[in-house]
Write a structure and sequence with these properties.
The chain is an alpha+beta fold. It contains 34 helices and 36 strands.
Length: 1198
């Protein structure tokens, strides 16, 4: 009969390369590259919060409307930015098309944007070393220099025409530039170069009569961006900075009318009073003389180019257009008079198609100037834009925004590079079918779209917050404002699942762990409805590969009582360079049929098994459709999906749901070490290194909202529940709250590694429970429940090194499962059952395996123990040398040192205080005089385990080659001139024949008889419990006694066997780490088998005690082998008592009945103190803790 397998196609780790703009969920830290975006700010990345600009550690060019203060929390910001690389080159921006017009004066062709350049002398003014600002911090001069350099590079390639307002940020510094319309960009480049040389906070050439002839540069710390913005705003508004002093005059090219014969710029400014700004003079008004002849202002125009087209001089242009600050407030579509008279009515008119007359906002625009330039009032502009996309009012004009300057239909908003949803996605056309602009380009998964055009699933993206104007596409200051698919409610959960599923994952790949591993045969038959076997992979020829887990898989296929699922993937296979592409290739059209045929009816190497694998997007959906069509109806198809929008959005889950039976939803690992430097991974934590729970209930809820909004029914989703924690090393153990931080980078956790999971940052519940019950070397252990995240928190460690771990214990798991079930998701958890026989079955099987392996592995060990003795002796000299390390060794304080350079006179010093002659390129000698012999050997034994009898004193000598200096041409290589380094009367390892290392094989041999006696006793007891002969006590106490009594010696034996299995793999030519591992494994065997030796222990005590010291010798002071001496000092301790009572060994009388002996043995184990248990190896304690947990869960019979 064919096994009833079902299939899991796993998505774990298989995602496409995501390139969504950083404003989207889980965004990049920096804007797009200037090299990719080009020189036009319209194509740069839009940023709406200064913190997003601050978090980028690259050099950034950016612009913003200077009238929207970055220091005002009520301001709505649009910052257009791009990243400039160190070797950035900018494509030259095309000059705006400024038409030339003939006149009666026969104008010459303009030399620069319709005007001519005239070289003129100016007197720059240098500002104070620091601006008046909120912060006292000054930017680093190198940071200012780099920001200025990038500004200069950009300006050098930009269009010659128009006003320039631009900022550059480099690390701690921000530099702002204002250049009036009549300053040539070539002149600005030179001005920026001179600013960098002066190393001051401001330099300006400020003309009270004309902002168009003003140029200024300002620098500040980035935290004082508002101060730099204010300076730019002052220059734009016709004010000059105060507290400046004149500098050396300079010559610059400025643009003037082609008719101007000469041009003279003032070289000084009006007298400035302290603390004030100087306003430019206002030209006198002229009387109107009828309508004047006009010129329209185009992009990039200046007064000089307009005067040229008018055929008049610059002075005449000012005379005919007497309004204040004309040259600094020119706007496209504005008109100027070319002769005396009044302007005709140029109020903007709607376009022929009914669209309003549109205007694009620039960086120095405000409603007042725009209204004046277009013969409107501010109120009229407000009225025209009530329904304009993004209109938040005159107080919040945004750079690049399209607004209405007449009645009519609002225009499509300006496209925003990188926008992924809404009407501002580049290339979006105006709808003709009545579709609301907000509904254009909806987000994948029906996720929320914010007002800035980016998708997400958190409250930041999903909460509506329209501006006070009520216009579409707006958000209140400090918010993002949702425009489509808004809301944070779970949907699609009206129907309960037909069957509640309890799914367990069996990690076949964990068999290499030293502890907390299990055989698939140990899975209880009635606890789970589905078991997922992890993991199979895919070969390069698209066949199924289970070679890494074949042994456990062969047992798995024979089991019954639950549905069996083979899962494909795994993090390593899914992400490593050699294999990650295979799933994607397998689901491509050209390979899809081959892969499905290999999956079903079955690959040759695993007959009748029906596994599968995903890829991504449409290929993946097509693959699932084909696979579903070939699977029999009784087989099920499922897949695991990530609970992250960033990864899940690539997949059409609504369509996939039609072909799969259920999804495993990975609502765990929501946070981890990988979050570091990801500002979007956790709200409010810019560095991404705040302590957050990886099973946060609120974030789990948000993930459930995301996938149900995407179209998947809740009853089709199995919500993930974990039995492990993500742990972090706290930067400050006294900190509490969501903004406490952890140490390490995104790839390296500094958290303690668990003894079984052996991975920093990942630790099992069992290991955490052991820390709580048996803190061991940890002086700090604190546990509590964080109600905000609905997580258990454990803090543990020592002062200066405390870890923080978030997990769910049994109670929280139960609460979480009930909450999930109440929302009609398809998951359940079964109650505990009676487990007497199950526990004894595991112990019985474990003993049978141990007996077989123990007896076979105890034979043929002569060569291994020979290597053990040889390698142990090899450790002695390196440990002595470490103890006596020059300059810092712990043994040096017991000596005086007599030192000298070669052929020099000997001098005496303390060995710790002597000069570091070993760092000098010279020969030398040191003679050691032992002044505290007892102190030295006591410390040596305590630190290294080395006995005094193993040490002799003598001379060592080695040499280095003297530095030959620079080679001379034609001389070739110089021979080595030896510089000898000698140590006299130096402690050294004595000869091997004088060093006795206890041979642990004698203990192994002495234990064999009593191991066999334990087998006889346990077989008898197992049959008795199985036949219910011990069920006559209250609450099955006799059966419970059997579990407790036998667990201790069996676990001891298992510990010895686990060490033995690996020893045979180590050969004589092993590398240093393998040698060390063999020694530690032999010590572990000794520790575990001593109680089995019984009465033969007496003559062997000397051997056992000397063996115990070897752990110190090889540098493993924390290893359990050091407690051998403590165990053998008390032959009445629990290990001896338990084994004696149940097997007649040692102190056991052998006169008790089997039931009585088991009861006494159980009591003996119960009297074992935590401090005694702590002497056992961690692996033993972990397994013992599991047995005790089983005992506590045994249920009473009715």
């Amino acid at each position: 009969m064919r096994p009833s397998f079902v299939l899991l196609a796993s998505l774990l780790g298989f995602t496409s390369a995501v390139t969504e703009s950083y404003n989207g969920q889980y965004a990049d830290n920096c804007p797009s590259l200037c090299a990719h975006a080009g020189p036009s700010p319209a194509n740069w990345t839009n940023i709406h919060h200064v913190r997003n600009l601050e978090s980028c550690d690259q050099t950034v060019l950016f612009g913003l409307n200077i009238h929207n203060s970055v220091a005002d929390p009520k301001t709505i910001l649009t910052i257009r930015a791009c990243v400039a690389s160190e070797s950035q080159t900018y494509e030259a921006a095309a000059s705006p098309d400024v038409p030339q017009q003939p006149s009666q004066h026969n104008l010459v062709v303009a030399e620069s944007c319709g005007a001519k350049a005239v070289n003129t002398a100016f007197t720059p003014q240098v500002g104070p070393s620091t601006l008046k600002k909120a912060s006292s911090a000054a930017p680093q001069s190198t940071h200012v220099a780099e920001a200025t350099r990038q500004l200069a590079l950009f300006v050098d390639k930009s269009a010659e025409c128009g006003t320039t307002i631009l900022f550059a940020k480099h690390k701690s510094a921000v530099v702002g530039l204002y250049s009036g319309a009549q300053i040539t960009k070539h002149a600005v480049r030179g001005f920026l170069d001179s600013f960098a040389e002066k190393k001051t906070s401001t330099v300006q050439i400020c003309q009270p009569a004309s902002a168009a002839l003003t140029v200024g540069v300002v620098s500040a710390s980035f935290v004082d961006l508002a101060a730099a913005q204010d300076a730019i705003k002052d220059w734009n508004n016709g004010l000059c900075l105060d507290e400046t002093i004149p500098a050396t005059p300079v010559s610059m090219d400025v643009l003037v009318s082609t008719l101007d014969k000469s041009f003279y710029a003032p070289t000084t400014t009006t007298t400035i009073s302290h603390g004030n700004m100087t306003a430019r003079g206002k030209p006198r008004a002229l009387l109107p003389r009828g309508e004047c002849r006009t010129e329209e202002v185009h992009g990039g125009d200046s007064c000089a180019s307009l005067a040229s087209r008018c055929g008049i001089s610059g002075n005449d242009l000012s005379k005919y257009n007497p309004q204040k600050n004309l040259c600094s407030t020119l706007k496209p579509k504005q008109h100027v008079c070319c002769n005396a008279g009044t302007l005709p009515d140029f109020r903007p008119r709607p376009q022929p198609d009914g669209t309003c007359n549109t205007y694009k906002v620039s960086d120095n625009d405000n409603c007042s100037d725009v209204a004046d330039a277009h013969y409107l009032t501010q109120q009229e502009i407000e009225d025209f834009n009530k329904n304009t996309w993004g209109w938040a009012g005159c107080a919040h004009l945004q750079s690049g925004q399209l607004i209405c300057l007449s009645e009519g239909t609002p225009p499509m908003p300006s496209p925003v590079q990188g926008a992924t949803c809404g009407p501002q996605v580049p290339g979006t056309e105006k709808p003709s079918n009545g579709t609301a602009l907000a509904d254009l380009n909806p987000c994948p998964l029906n996720a929320c779209c914010d007002a800035w055009g980016f998708c997400g699933t958190t409250v930041d993206f999903c909460t509506k917050s329209p501006a006070d104007t009520g216009a579409p596409g707006t958000a209140k200051p400090g918010t993002n404002g949702c425009i489509s698919n808004c809301g944070m409610d779970i949907v699609n959960n009206g129907k309960a699942p037909d069957q509640l599923k309890t799914v367990g994952y069996f990690e076949a790949f964990d068999q290499s762990r030293v502890c907390l591993r299990m055989s698939v045969k140990e899975i209880p038959a009635n606890k789970y409805s589905h078991i997922h076997f992890a993991f199979a992979t895919v070969t390069s020829s698209f066949d199924v590969d289970i070679s890494d887990v074949e042994y456990e898989f062969s047992k798995f296929v024979k089991m019954s009582g639950f549905k069996k699922i083979l899962t494909f993937g795994g993090w390593a296979f899914s992400t490593e360079a050699g294999t990650f592409q295979r799933f994607r290739d397998a689901t491509k059209k050209e390979h899809r049929e081959t892969f499905v045929n290999n999956l079903y009816p079955g690959a040759p190497d695993i007959p009748d098994i029906t596994p599968g694998s995903p890829e991504e997007g449409d290929n993946y959906l097509a693959f699932l459709q084909l696979l579903r069509s070939k699977l029999p109806s009784e087989k099920s198809l499922s897949l695991a999906v990530p609970a992250s929008y960033w990864y899940l959005k690539q997949y059409p889950v609504k369509d996939i749901a039609k072909y799969v039976d259920y999804f495993i939803y990975m609502t765990y690992d929501l946070h981890g070490q990988w979050d570091v430097d990801n500002k979007s991974s956790m709200p409010g934590c810019q560095a991404g290194n705040c302590l957050r729970s990886h099973i946060n209930k609120t974030e789990t809820h948000d993930a459930m909202v995301m996938i149900t909004k995407a179209g998947v029914e809740a009853r089709q989703l199995i919500i993930g529940i974990t039995s492990y924690a993500r742990s972090f090393r706290m930067n400050d153990a006294s900190c509490s709250g969501p903004f406490c931080t952890f140490a390490g980078d995104k790839r390296h956790s500094m958290a303690y590694a668990g003894p079984c999971t052996t991975t920093g940052g990942y630790i099992s519940n069992a290991e955490l429970n052991d820390i709580i019950k048996n803190p061991g070397n940890y002086s700090i252990v604190k546990s509590y429940i964080d109600k905000d995240s609905d997580s258990n928190i454990l803090m543990y460690g020592n002062p200066g090194a405390v870890d923080w771990a978030a997990y769910m214990d049994g109670d929280l798991k139960t609460n979480r499962i009930n909450w999930i079930k109440g929302l009609n998701f398809g998951a359940d958890s079964l109650d505990s059952g009676c487990v007497h026989l199950f526990a004894l079955d595991i112990l019985y099987s474990q003993l049978l395996d141990s007996l077989s392996l123990f007896q076979s592995n105890s034979e043929g060990y002569d060569d291994k123990f020979g290597w053990y003795e040889k390698w142990t002796k090899e450790q002695i000299q390196p440990r002595i040398d470490g103890f006596m390390k020059l300059g810092e060794g712990k043994g040096l304080k017991y000596f005086d040192c007599y030192w000298a350079y070669t052929d020099g006179k000997e001098k005496k010093d303390s060995c710790l205080g002597m000069p570091h002659i070993w760092d000098v390129n010279a020969g030398w000698s040191i003679r050691y005089d032992l002044v505290d012999k007892k102190g030295f050997f006591d410390a040596l034994a305590a630190e290294t385990g080395i006995d005094e009898s193993w040490v002799a004193f003598g001379e060592t000598s080695e040499y280095i080659c003297a530095d030959p200096g620079d080679p001379r041409p034609g001389t070739g290589g110089l021979p080595c001139r030896k510089l000898f380094h000698k140590k006299l009367n130096y402690p050294q390892k004595d000869s091997d024949d004088k060093i006795h290392v206890g041979n642990p094989k004698k203990l192994i041999e002495a234990s064999i008889g009593n191991v066999t006696a334990l087998r006889t006793s346990l077989l008898s007891s197992y049959l008795s419990v199985g036949l219910s002969f011990y069920d006559d006590g209250p609450n099955d106490t006799s059966a419970t006694d059997a579990v407790v009594a036998y667990s201790m010696p069996i676990l001891q034996l298992t510990e010895a066997i686990n060490s033995m299995k690996d020893i045979k793999e180590i050969g004589e030519d092993a590398k240093e780490q393998a040698k060390k591992d063999l020694i530690l494994k032999i010590l572990t065997i000794v520790f575990m088998v001593i109680p089995f030796v019984g009465e033969a222990l007496g003559p062997l005590i000397g051997s056992a005690a000397s063996v115990a010291r070897i752990a110190l010798l090889i540098g493993e002071a924390g290893n359990g082998a050091l407690t051998v001496a403590e165990i053998i000092e008390d032959p009445t301790s629990a290990p001896f008592a338990v084994l004696g009572l149940i097997a007649g060994v040692g102190v056991g009388s052998g006169k008790l009945s089997k039931a009585e002996a088991l009861a006494e043995a159980s009591k003996a184990r119960g009297l074992l103190k935590g401090s005694d248990l702590a002497k056992f190896p961690q692996r033993f304690r972990d397994q013992d803790a599991l047995v005790q947990k089983v005992v506590k869960s045994l249920c009473a019979r009715s």
